[in-house]
Specification:
Layout (H helix, E strand, L loop, with lengths): L3 H7 L5 E5 L4 H13 L4 E5 L10 H7 L3 H6 L1 E3 L2 H4 L5 E5 L10 E2 L1 H8 L6 E5 L8 H5 L3 E3 L12 H15 L17 H17 L11 H12 L3 H14 L7
Parallel strand pairs: 1-2, 1-6, 2-3, 4-6, 4-7, 5-7
Helix pairs in contact: 2-3, 2-8, 6-8, 9-10, 9-11
């Protein structure tokens, strides 16, 4: 049986794992271990409680041989930054959000997602309160791991391990070539940029009241995510937004 080091080297994969506001260094180390044993290495930490979490003794101890994954983890300030290059993001949240992405059991979604040309990210919230609504809205789907009725509390690293295992199985195990990605798909940063642009325009033309936005932007976010926009299509949307921007008055 191949060692975990061999599996990681033999099966490079573009899948990204994102941890938001992680409180406990041990969970970061354990996540690195869970990823490596399933052949994944791209870990991004969004505003962890300890900016130097990768050097914390508990993180190093619980990484248990996955120090390359831990040491290579990137620390960023926002989820949008963490999703740079990602074209399909899966939130992990037990409770569905109004106007948020559809909720699936992992295996149910992975059977259709694995053959796609998306670069996939799995996003996990902090231990205490999970993911915020705004972060969930940025994702294309929401994963809910089936658990026993009445008790759905999973340790963060355990949840990562379950998702990593099911995804590895869905993409064919360790004996297949890396997935082929579509470079023409717009990533989450491009889509978010278009949404921010449209939000500014909608406020300027009076369609969106910033003091009472309701759920307009989450609805638009969900609609754009469902479309799997190309880079060119995002550029068209931004061009329309520029054309719709009211001219500045000169006094």
């Amino acid at each position: 049986m191949p060692k975990p080091d061999d599996m990681t080297a033999a099966t490079p994969d573009s899948t990204r794992f994102v941890l938001i506001n992680t409180s406990h260094p041990g969970n970061v180390g354990s996540t690195a271990r869970a990823m490596k044993v399933m052949g994944f290495s791209d870990l991004v930490l969004v505003a962890p409680r300890y900016p130097n979490v990768k050097g914390k003794a508990e993180a190093i101890s619980l990484a248990s041989g996955a120090l390359d994954v831990l040491g290579g983890a990137r620390v960023v300030d926002t989820l949008t930054e963490a999703l740079d290059g990602v074209t399909y993001a899966c939130a992990t949240a037990m409770t569905p959000r109004d106007f948020g992405p559809p909720t699936h059991a992992p295996r149910e979604l992975f059977s259709s997602l694995a053959p796609s040309a998306h670069r996939v990210a799995f996003v996990f919230g902090c231990e205490r309160y999970g993911m915020t609504n705004d972060d969930v809205y940025k994702c294309h789907a929401c994963l809910s791991i089936p658990t026993a009725p009445g008790y759905g509390s999973l340790n963060l690293a355990q949840a990562v391990q379950l998702i990593a295992y099911d995804w590895r199985q869905a993409i064919g195990g360790f004996s297949v070539l890396p997935r082929t990605l579509d470079a023409n798909l717009a990533d989450a940063v491009a889509v978010q940029g278009a949404l921010d642009h449209w939000q500014r325009v909608l406020v300027e033309i009076g369609f969106l009241d910033p003091n009472s936005p309701k759920k307009l932007m989450p609805r638009l976010n969900s609609a754009l995510n469902r479309l799997s926009l190309s880079v060119e299509e995002v550029q068209i949307l931004r061009g329309i937004a520029r054309a719709a921007t009211p001219p500045k008055r000169i006094n």
